[in-house]
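Hi R.,

Here are the chain sequences for the assembly we discussed:
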Amino acid sequence: MSVFILRRLLQSVLVIVAMAMIVFFGVHLVGDPVYMFITPDMDQQDIENVTRALGLDRPIWEQFWLFIVNALSGNLGQSFIFGEPALGLIIQRMPATLELAFAALLMAIVIGIPLGLYAGLYPDSVGAKTIMAGSILGFSLPTFWVGIMMIMVFAVMLGWLPSTGRGSTVDVFGIRVSFLTLDGLRHLALPALNLALLKISLVIRLTRAGAREAMLQDYIKFARAKGLSRSRIVGVHLMKNILIPVVTVLGLEFGSLIAFSVVTETIFAWPGMGKLLIESIQQLDRPIIVAYLMMIVFLFVVINLVVDILYSILDPRVRLGDRGQ
Amino acid sequence: MSRETILEVRDLRTHFFTKAGVARAVDGVSFSLARGEVLGLVGESGSGKTVTGFSLMGLVDPPGRLVSGSIRLGNEELAGLLEEGWRRLRGRRIAMIFQDPMMTLNPVLRIDTQMIEAIRAHVDISRSAARERAREALARVGIPSPDERLSAYPHQFSGGMRQRVAIAIALLNEPDVIVADEPTTALDVTIQAQILYEVQKLCAETGLAMIWITHDLAVVGGLADRVAVMYAGRIVEQGPVDAVLDAPYHPYTHGLIGSVPSQNRRGTRLTQIPGMAPSLLALPEGCSFAARCPRADAACKVLPDLLELSAGRTARCHHPHGLVETTVGEDA
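And here is the predicted structure of the full complex:
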């Protein structure tokens, strides 16, 4: 197991270094941020001063080198706009995004697995067909459109739920969270559901496919031949086999929930990292863009590692395969 | 056959109601089983032997349904039981072993989990007591160091060992009857011989009755007390295993035995049964074997009854081997 983790860590470092290069040089092609600071009354000397102050006068290789050296000590650069460390700015916004992502993940599990299980166990029922048709909608409707429609229906027409912001928050260990107050929960509901919709559909499909396949296996028939109750067969024998692909996919998708909450955060004015990223792109605030992308890469790498470890807990065959090597 | 009868099956019919029509997978099967007896249920693929086994367990899934007939286990009538009734019975009084040991154990659950749950589904005992019983069952089927093996996962066992585990699971609640559906077909011959030996010992020691479903006549010859030959959903011949294999009455049994390679016919061509088994959706009128039978004639347009042709031996044929044809009626 430890050899396995060590090998995975080494691979992870390579991925991060490669991504650092792509992100850093890629962002430099997008546009020159100096022009964001120039006012019509500046002369050439002023422009050069600004360029020097931002460190943009040096050759790009040197800039990259400085970036790497600073990054190793945890400094991913200063925001051009805010004049504060980029990473600090992102981390400030992180709890909001994480809260949204976890809420969406929870919805995907709590709604997706039971619906998928039902659709898999009773594939010919009307309920199952409705669920499957619904999941196709969840897959194919674009997030931004669904988000706007949700605001239209639930916030504007019915007036049940608020459409923007986090509502009242509570400090837990210095982190602001919404989900502990009723008002916060009401604010969280719409954006979380919006973000979760695609994942719910995904989980439904995975669970259904897994259930249908597993129900035909001999081990299910053998479990029935042992006289086990249906709840034990479905809850233990079936679920443990279905959970393997569901955990794998959900783990990977959790990264994308965080990374791509951008759209949902923009629509619902949720003050998270995604909203910060969009604003930074508009203002060509390179350090924040780079820091954000680096953090997302880091996140994906960590999640992949955790999923692999979880996977080996769920599936004993993976564990043995590692020991054999 | 003076031993107490434990299982009595009468005119069992299990049909599958498919879009293409009604498939009569089991169509009037009757047999009985005494304590400690091994009945070999023989037939080619699609003859209905596996469906017979599942019918006895109440494990026939839609579109299949037990249409009529009676299954008496001890004093209890099983036909017509509801799911919960079947569940209480399965694994406790009648257990089953499947063909492919690589598939029957759940790959993500430990052996002890899968054994303990089988006990606790029927008996209200503590986990540790159930584990102890599981350990004894593993030891009984010849699994070395059962204590360690209990905590292992199925993939850590070989095929033969997994089948032993499956047999141990079937034995856990000391059932009256075990239905074994080709349990040694997927194993190599050495392992097969070991398992057959263990099973024979178990039946003799514990009075366990067994229905051994197979298409392997050699296995039946070495293991079973009696044999029932199935063809197209019906039993066509039944009797003590040595008598049936030495001098079969039914032309189908005759053909089956003729198609098995044996020592004393070395160098000659194996005989084969011409044609194919009929589709269960469109069974011919009368004897379903008639189209492939060298002895068939006009009389075979009428379904022959299962007649007792000699002591303890029945066959469903108008023109059985080994008897002068005109005397059939009088002999029976």
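Chain B is about 30% helix and 25% strand. The domain at 5-93+175-275 of chain B is CATH 3.40.50.300 (Rossmann fold).

Let me know if anything looks off.

Best,
T.
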